Amino acid sequence: MLKKLAVLTSGGDAPGMNAAIRAVVRIAASRKVEVLGVKRGFRGLLHNEMVHLGVRDVGNIIQLGGTILRSSRCKEFFEREHRRRAAQVLNEREIGGLIIIGGDGSFRGAKEFSEDWNGRLVGIPGTIDNDIYGSDFTIGFHTAVDTALDAIDKVRDTADAHDRYFFIEVMGRHSGWIGLYAGIAGGAQETLIPEETQTVEEAYQRLLEGKKRGRKSSIMVMSEGCSGDGAVAIAKRFEEQTGNDCRAVVLGHIQRGGRPVASDRVLATQLGAYATELIIDGSSGIFVGNHKGALCHYPFEHSWEKKKPVDEYLLKLQEALAG
């Protein structure tokens, strides 16, 4: 019977992680299971940095961005000697289960750790990239999109006022979910994402066609991974080729911060509670998700062996609406 479990947040922070931590602690308390919070992800696990988390400790955190446990990336954890040290830390504290909130890199670490520790391991997908196969959405995605959308709306005001072309770069080195959603919601004339076959040159031509039809300003949303040049270089090239007044806006890490929107808080609460119930009842080696409104779970390997595609209908819709 599980009497004590630990929870950590790993990799890039995502709005809603605190809501997930809160759900883990409160569901565990209802099942008479003690919870320890690991500071700084796997790195904190290696250095035995843990704090007790009770019901009162997670009060008034559901609305906070970031993570109260802090996070980090830990390359050392992929070395067996370090994983064995982490296993020793957990065993000495008599911890029988570990919940990991993070992305596919964190789940890879958990999978590796399962070879060196015989406790239970369950993951919760927390990443703004929304690139985890098996869950329609991941914790933090909707907040990141709303943050990007707020910036796009404000940029459009100045674009219209000065007849400018704006190239807005959003996060998404390998995944275009943020770019696609923000582009559609922001009414962008062009959207470039890593999964799309359209080239920068083709996007240029479409912008020029819009100019010929009388369009005086435009917004192009692009994921950071869709071109090796980046928004600044692309805006400069377009200005040189066309003579248009062009500007680049790189949103960067601002998309990670801020209060989580309602949908992220609800999703994080659902997944945090579900993961806790599963690990207490004996499950291990899995991560949880929400697919078509139903809670589900998959082996850790699915998060990196299966590529999550973007919504093809939305992609075609964006192309049809552009102009």
What does this entry show, briefly?
By secondary structure, this protein is of the alpha/beta class. It has 2 domains: 4-140 and 260-305, 3-Layer(aba) Sandwich (Rossmann fold), CATH 3.40.50; 143-256, Rossmann fold.
Question: Mind explaining what this structure looks like?
Answer:
The protein has helices at 17-30, 41-46, 80-92, 104-113, 141-162, 177-185, 200-212, 230-242, 262-280, 302-305, 312-321; strands at residues 4-9, 34-38, 50-53, 97-102, 120-125, 165-170, 190-192, 218-223, 246-250, 286-291, 294-299. The chain is of the alpha/beta class. The protein has two domains: 4-140 and 260-305, Rossmann fold; 143-256, 3-Layer(aba) Sandwich (Rossmann fold). The longest helix has 22 residues, at 141-162. The chain is elongated, with a radius of gyration of 22 Å. It starts with a strand and ends with a helix. The mean pLDDT is 90.
Count the helices. How many? 11
Q: Which regions are unreliable across 5 or more consecutive residues at pLDDT < 50?
A: none
Radius of gyration: 22 Å
- The SSE order reads EHEHEHEHEHEHEHEHEHEEHH
From the N-terminal CA to the C-terminal CA, the straight-line distance is 61 Å
- Globally, the shape reads elongated
Please, what is the average pLDDT?
Answer: 90
How many β strands by DSSP?
11
CATH topology of the largest domain: Rossmann fold
Class by SSE composition = alpha/beta
The main β sheet shows up as: 7 strands, mixed
Arrangement of strands in the largest sheet: 3-2-1-4-5-10-11
* Tally of individual domains: 2
Percent of residues in helices? 40-55%
Supply the CATH class of the largest domain: Alpha Beta
CATH architecture field of the largest domain:
3-Layer(aba) Sandwich
Percent in strands: 15-25%
